[in-house]
Amino acid sequence: MSPSSTDDLAIEARGLVKHFTSGKSVTKAVDGIDLTVPEGTVLGVLGPNGAGKTTAVRMLATLLRPDAGTATVLGHDVVRDADKVRSVVGLTGQYASVDEDLTGTENLVMLARLYGFLGGSARARSTELLDAFGLGDAGDRQVKTYSGGMRRRIDLAASLVMSPRVLFLDEPTTGLDPRSRNQVWDIIRVLVADGATVLLTTQYLEEADQLADKIAVIDHGRVIAEGTATELKRSVGQGAVHLRLADSAQRARAAELVATVLGAEVSLANDPYAFSARVPDDGGPAVARLLPALDDEGIAVPEFSLGQPSLDEVFLALTGQPLDEDPGASDDETIEEVA
Amino acid sequence: MATEQTTAAELRAPEASALREAVALEHRPGRPSPVSATLTYTWRALLKIKHVPEQLFDVTVSPIIFTLMFTYLFGGALAGDVTTYLQFLLPGILVQAVLFTTIYTGYTMNNDITKGVFDRFRSLPVWRPAPIVGALLGDTVRYTIASIVTLTLGLVLGFRPSGGVVGVVLGVLMLLVFAFALSWVFTILGLLMRSPNAVMGTSMMVLMPLTFASNIFVDPSTMPAVLQGFVDVNPVSHLVTAVRGLMAGEPDLTAVTWVLVASVVLTAALAPITMRLYRNRS
């Protein structure tokens, strides 16, 4: 974040603002966002529907002119040098899509030509990408016949025709089944391993946790927290210990012991063998003493785990509201922001 | 979870290496010329005709219905006999057929916007007007098809233009030039309106009065003075007069000049507005 590291930043946004006026009401879609993404890293932009994620990405990808603030991608200003930005970024989102009426091959050949591949080399590039994305057999089919997972892969392939150094992925897995989602994640991991810089928006906590080096939490057009998944989780406390005993008759005694050692309240699970306790802020060393203490009392603990708080809890702690995880609702954001 | 991932990654190892190779692009081509980019978009428009031939249905069927309907329902009453009326009507109905086809320009553009295809185009480093100019050029293929269908039907029914092949071809070219210029009206509507159907509805509202309150179907001299006044300034009337003259082998140079000037003015005024809307569309 220090200004001296500007050289290595792939994406830098300062005070980005975008307000939409419809009639007399003004929607502050993006209300002063700062973002920095060092080259070769993944920034996860996490937020609920309507938080401003899509609008922010559209500004960074030169599709939308900011009302205020500045942003650069690989040193190119997104307003003044928009064309240079366009030649180094790839974009995949619900709004940047391929043509459903055309076949997979036709879509990729068209994009390859638009990026300057001539004649046969455009076709070769298309074949190479289709094969790499496991769509080799589907190249001659219209995209409208593709399944959701194939559709997302052709969208990704379309944004990689030029092997962009910076990739914007706007909710790349929203609405996908778990198998297709894992495929998309694998693709993203390969791209990142190859040195691409990725800005990924998501409303899935697990996705940000799985893929992102850093996470920026957005709500109401502002960044309300930024850090690694671990840092964000730590900011709301140390998490909790979960225990499962061999003998349910020992639970009351074990719970009492844990409460004493940790100095924290214990909550008993419905399962008569299990209970958990929140770890207080300075409770680290006490956690280490739990197992020997239980062992001294002759209580067998076949299952013991220390879990960090979920990002759900992080969001709740930051905003006072739980994250809305309904994937079907994500369309609302697009309509609200794009229309 | 961790083990699952490893297995998945191992299973797809060949694919992952193909992906790595595909991404490691050795040779980056330079950006395409404006002409090449525009023609690529034209190619796309033609591919869409190939994949969605239904879109030609309106282009072909409605001129047929209109020609048959007006020729046989009103021909005898208006001009004494059907064949005489057809000589008058056909160039006019041709103009109407092509002008109605221009609506699709706005319709398809709006469809591209709502489906997200346009944003993909906007994110590419190419000459900015290329997607629009390319689409308009592709649309002229549709206009040509509408012209050929209408003319063929006319010839079958007994249309015998004295201007010959040259006169007919010149008439059609004149029409295509004006249709291209008029399309910019619909690109603007396509960029402004919220849904493809809204574009369709609004465009019909614009074109209906323009085509009916003109000299397409009847000689305006029998109309009330007020209406005559409108017909005289209606650009469609001038276009019809120009096309009729060329096809009859008696070109009306005033009308021809008027149409050419109007085409240039329309394009010069509306193309920049379209581009502005295209650039700033949120």
UniProtKB/TrEMBL annotation, chain A:
GO cellular component: plasma membrane
Signal peptide (residue range): none
Subcellular location: Cell membrane
Any one of the GO BP annotations: response to antibiotic
A GO molecular-function descriptor: ATP hydrolysis activity
Transmembrane region(s): none
Domain ABC transporter: 11-245
Keywords: Antibiotic resistance, ATP-binding, Cell membrane, Membrane, Nucleotide-binding, Translocase, Transport
Membrane topology designation: Peripheral membrane protein
Family from the record: Belongs to the ABC transporter superfamily. Drug exporter-1 (DrugE1) (TC 3.A.1.105) family.
Name listed for the protein in its UniProt record: ATP-binding cassette domain-containing protein
Organism: Cellulosimicrobium arenosum
Lineage summary: Bacteria, Bacillati, Actinomycetota, Actinomycetes, Micrococcales
TrEMBL record, chain B:
Cellular component aspect of the GO annotation: ATP-binding cassette (ABC) transporter complex
Protein name: Transport permease protein
Keywords attached to this entry: Antibiotic resistance, Cell membrane, Membrane, Transmembrane, Transmembrane helix, Transport
TM annotation in the entry: 56-79, 85-109, 130-159, 165-192, 255-278
GO biological process: response to antibiotic
Organism: Cellulosimicrobium arenosum
Record has ATP-binding as a keyword: no
Keyword Membrane among record annotations: yes
Membrane topology: Multi-pass membrane protein
Domain ABC transmembrane type-2 as annotated: residue spans: 54-281
Location(s), subcellular: Cell membrane; Membrane
Organism lineage string: Bacteria, Bacillati, Actinomycetota, Actinomycetes, Micrococcales
Predominant location: membrane
Entry similarity comment: Belongs to the ABC-2 integral membrane protein family.
GO MF terms, alphabetically ordered: ABC-type transporter activity
